[in-house]
UniProtKB/TrEMBL annotation:
Pfam families membership: Sarcoglycan_1 (PF04790)
Source species: Amphiprion ocellaris
Keywords noted in UniProt: Cell membrane, Cytoplasm, Cytoskeleton, Disulfide bond, Glycoprotein, Membrane, Signal-anchor, Transmembrane, Transmembrane helix
Record InterPro entries: Sarcoglycan (IPR006875), Sarcoglycan_gamma/delta/zeta (IPR039972)
Protein name as annotated: Sarcoglycan, delta (dystrophin-associated glycoprotein)
Length: 293
């Protein structure tokens, strides 16, 4: 056991020692750096907030959309001119009611239809070189649904009541033409011409050439053939003129002297050639048959 003197001495020793104090917090240069970073962060937040408000104001952001772009129940609505720098994928592109849809490009506008394997089926290209369409079939219909024009690999169909060719040289066909009726415009002439080849017209039941208010001319360089295999060829007119027929020359012994002959008869050679012969009391075709040689 400690005596009273020892306890008193121990208390005096403890009271003579000073208590230790521990400081809590940031002091000195660390505190100044912290305040600086806090101030810098506040400045950045204010600048970022100001830029965000400026962008929202310039881009015209609203609850319904951005600028000319509006978000509706049916999709996106663009007002005014719009420019797309990348491909546009949309299910439907529609203009305002009563307003046209205008597509503009500095090069061309292409519309492609592909299948599930990304193979091209139909293509529509409008560019500086012209208008191009690619597909199995091309059709043009009227508002009532009547077919006006159709084209495929087999044939081209013109469904309009009248086909008008406005070119000065007319219509040029490299192959045959099949049509039930060829008619010129009122008060205009119809001209069928083959400058370097022959012109052939065939019909199983006949060919009718009609000019109600004008003349019919058939001009060729070599020969003009009218052929009927099972029927006949009829020339029905008030006056039939055979121009520039050759004149047969009679032999010297059988030639008659006297006044110049003004009456002739038309003779036919065995090969079908026609010629004129001076008329006499009898037929003079046998006498003037040197034309048939």
């Amino acid at each position: 056991m400690m005596t009273q003197e020892q306890c008193t001495h121990r208390n005096n020793v403890q009271s003579s020692e000073k208590p230790q104090v521990y400081k809590v917090g940031i002091y000195g240069w660390r505190k100044r750096c912290l305040y600086f970073f806090v101030l810098l962060l506040m400045i950045l937040i204010l600048v970022n907030l100001a830029l965000t408000i400026w962008i929202l104001k310039v881009m015209n952001f609203t609850i319904d959309g951005m600028g000319n772009l509006r978000i509706t129940e049916k999709g996106l609505k663009l007002e005014g001119d719009s420019e797309f720098l990348q491909p546009l994928y949309a299910k439907e592109i529609q203009s305002k009611p009563g307003r046209p849809l205008f597509l503009q490009s500095s090069r061309n506008v292409s519309v492609n239809i592909v299948n599930s394997n990304n193979q091209l089926l139909t293509q529509l290209v409008t560019g500086s070189s012209g208008f191009k369409a690619r597909g199995k079939m091309f059709e043009v219909k009227s508002t009532s649904g009547k077919l006006l024009f159709s084209a495929d690999e087999q044939e081209v169909v013109v469904g309009a009541e009248r086909l008008r060719v406005m070119g000065a040289e007319g219509a040029v066909f490299s192959k045959s033409v099949e049509t039930p009726h060829v008619r010129a415009e009122p008060f205009k002439e119809l001209r069928l011409e083959s400058p370097t080849r022959s012109l052939l017209m065939e019909a199983p039941k006949g060919i009718q050439i009609l000019a109600e208010a004008g003349d019919i001319q058939a001009i060729c360089r070599n020969e003009l053939r009218l052929e009927s295999k099972d029927g006949e060829i009829s020339l029905d007119a008030r006056r039939i003129r055979l121009m520039r027929l050759p004149e047969g020359k009679a032999s010297t012994s059988s030639s008659s002297s006297g006044t110049r002959q003004t009456v002739y008869e038309v003779c036919v050679c065995p090969n079908g050639r026609l010629f004129l012969s001076q008329a006499g009391t009898g037929s003079t075709c046998q006498i003037s048959n040197n034309v048939c040689l």
